[in-house]
Amino acid sequence: MQESSASSGERQGRPGTGGRPVVTYLGPRGTFTEQALHRFIEAGHVPAEAELRPVDSPAAAIRAVREGSADMACVALENSVDGPVVQTFDALAGVTAGGGHGGGHGAGPTAAGAAGNDDALENAPGDVRILRETDVPVEFAVLVRPGTAAADVRTVTTHPVAMAQVRGWMDRELPGAQFIPASSNGAAAAAVAAGEADAAAAPLLAAGIHGLDALAEGVADVRGANTRFVLVGRPGAAASAGRTGRDRTAVVFSLPNHPAALWTALSEIAMRDVDMSRIESRPTRTGLGTYMFHVELVGHVEDDAVADALAGLHRRTDAVRFLGSWPQSGGTVHDDTGGSGGRVPPDLTASRRWVTDLREGPGHAPGTDAPGTDEQGRVQK
Predict the structure, then answer these.
(1) How far apart are CA 88 and CA 84, in angstroms?
(2) How much is the pLDDT for 8?
(3) Which three-class secondary structure state does DSSP give residue 96?
(4) In sequence order, which residues have a C-beta less than 8 Å from that of residue 211 and are 6 or more positions away?
(5) Which of 31, 170, 252, 338 has the most CB atoms around it within 10 Å of its CB?
(6) What is the 8-class DSSP label of residue 206?
(7) Cα angle: 296, vertex 297, 303; to 5 degrees
(8) Angstrom distance (rounded) from CA 329 to CA 340
(9) CATH number for region 241-330+341-361
């Protein structure tokens, strides 16, 4: 790959050959994940000389970062049609395929339905952070071996998430074709090239990689669909960013088993006027009725209101893991009504200055832009 403007500061722990940083992604070549990874390279968040290492699942990509064999991972987080990519959510929480928690964090977390206080979700060595995001438009091509007509197609392969986005087209155009799940859209194209299936729904670029023809292009049941991909690394990675004013923050937590535990936890967010943009529940795999909750907030951990909300969650939950704060890639944020990216957290400068003046006397720390209080403790506007 050619050198780009990525600085040497972007280069990580260099576990790769020749000192090159390693970035894992869902392979093989020709996936939407690979497209997202090249967007991160173009933006300068991944060095151009990085070794791009395909793996067979989002979980494997993130596990490589946890274990230190990769510097970063590019994984899909959610799709506008099919929703969350659950493998990614579980991997971020440290849930292993065999159940419970991996990554050296001990046993599974205590969630609703279990007793005690288990810190399996608490941040510890080996944790990962979401560093960046990018939204990729999703349209598929139906790829076949040269000379294959629609009437010849008996089997269709693609990733199950992709199938959910093209099911209507398949039912209309290839009725009766048997669906064969694939580990990725790139793997589906490779399977067609190997004669293991007749057609694949995959990105058009996979046609050139595998020597296939496009039976159809621009296939999507819902126009304008997007998948959000994230770049995951270890805490303190060079690709991480400070507060921009258009940010997201994510945590995953487990709860004590008592009535209104979830409501109580979420009230810590609501009472601080912090916008919650997503919540997902995922089983802990330690028993029926035990769940973890993934929550995404609008704002950055450096925003006082977000920090206070996180502190409240830490107090109300059995265990909580911070997954990162990072810049939004799309949408807009607004102070009052909110936009597609949510509403920015409130500015607590005046409120905190008022409390400081109550503690230390009016007129404390003159010369700041924050308002002080008068002798009656009223905020001076």
Answers:
(1) 8
(2) 34
(3) coil
(4) 146, 193
(5) 31
(6) H
(7) 140
(8) 11
(9) 3.30.70.260
* Rounded Cα–Cα distance for residues 175 and 354 (Å): 68
- Cα–Cα dist 133/239, whole Å: 11
* CATH topology identical between 141-202 and 241-330+341-361: no
User: Domain ranges in the chain?
Assistant: 20-96+124-138+224-240, 141-202, 241-330+341-361
CA distances from 379 to 121, 352, 355, 359, 363 (A): 41, 10, 10, 14, 11
The domain 141-202: what is its CATH number?
A: 3.40.190.10
Q: Is the pLDDT of residue 226 over 50?
A: yes
pLDDT tens per residue, range 53-101: 999 999 999 999 999 999 999 999 999 988 999 999 999 998 765 555 5
Closest by alpha carbon to 206, among 19, 54, 361?
54
Say yes or no to pLDDT of 349 above 90: no
pLDDT of residue 63: 95
**Residue pLDDT, tens place only, 298-327:** 999 999 999 999 999 999 999 999 999 999
How far from 306 is each of 249, 252, 268, 347, CA to CA, in Å? Answer: 8, 15, 10, 10
> Coil, strand or helix: which one is 166?
helix
Backbone angles phi, psi at 77, to 5 degrees: -105, -45
Q: Given CATH 3.40.50.1820, say whether it is the number of domain 20-96+124-138+224-240.
A: no
| Residue % of the chain over a pLDDT of 90 | 65
More confident residue, 261 or 376: 261
Nearest residue to 168 (alpha-carbon basis) of 223, 107, 221, 126: 221
Supply 251's token pair. Answer: 């945590």
**pLDDT at residue 368 greater than cutoff 60:** no
Q: What is the DSSP letter of 288?
A: T
